[in-house]
Amino acid sequence: MTRMGSLVWNPIVAREARTRMRSKRAAFILFCWLAALGVVAILAYASAGNQSASVTVLAHSGVTVFDSLVAVVVALLLLLVPGLVAGSIAGERERQTLDLLLCTRVRPWRVVIGKLAASLAFMGFLLVASLPILSVVALLGGIAWSDILIVVGLGALTAVTIGSMSILFSAISKGPTGAIVCSYVAMFILLVGPLVLGSYLLAQGFASGVNGGGYSSSSGSGLIAGPAIVPQQSAAPPLIMALSPGVAIGSEVASISLQNCTSGLLPNTFGGGSFSSPSGYNCGAVTFDRIGSGPLNGWHIWQVFVVFAIALSSVCISLAIVALRGRVPWPRRALPEGT
Fold this sequence. Notes:
By secondary structure, the chain is mainly alpha-helical. It contains 15 helices and four strands. A two-stranded antiparallel ribbon has the order 1-2. The longest helix has 28 residues, at 24-51.
């Protein structure tokens, strides 16, 4: 257990955690984070209440608040993670303390893991601090605790992925400014690139290859249509779009919202189209939720993103360790750890 704990908790993490959490900047970021979530939750609930005085609509106001909070949390993660992580190793190089750090008993891989873990630990602290506000949606109705934990887990994995990319640029850049700029550019490409490429393939005539369909209701006739048939020729567009954290989290949030909205009224089927409840409450629409063809047939979109995020994070961390190890003096490389 001691050796397993040392993989994450090492002198680098201890120093970074103490210095970061004792600063006024950390308290200010925490205050702004919680204030933003609180304001968004109040405005979303007020908006849901003003739309209709129906008891059914108010019973599902938690869905509206949940969607708004998740959007804000993901946006704040995308804005904060590159700035917190990208300057960690590059800042040491700019202060000319990196070579001294590499001459100590701390190995390069522990420096990379320590810098990354210390920065992401603060983001984890912010996510944990957000749980009381996120739990309010469970009291409003329509969202379960399991749904909240799934989305929080996807958000944490997104932070790890972007942090791994940022730590790579921090290890190879000469200064923190270049590392931060490259990290934001890479984050933007990861967020928008798969969506644009997948949309382009769809526009060129590729079938979506997802389990589409859905249910629709006609309040005039009272008839409910069955699931629509969607061509399943190629799974390339949804697979590509699933690599974007925005698409993965968005599809899961939409699935959760539709599932809870239509619970007890219709079978759980996600896909294109929308469902309108008898009371007139619009449950929204889900574009896709599962891969419908290919070797990953039946996988959820978020499951594809999880596999891709883990692989991308592993590659970025490995390359950062290799880049940092190249700066270690040759006599120091030959010595075993602890000598």
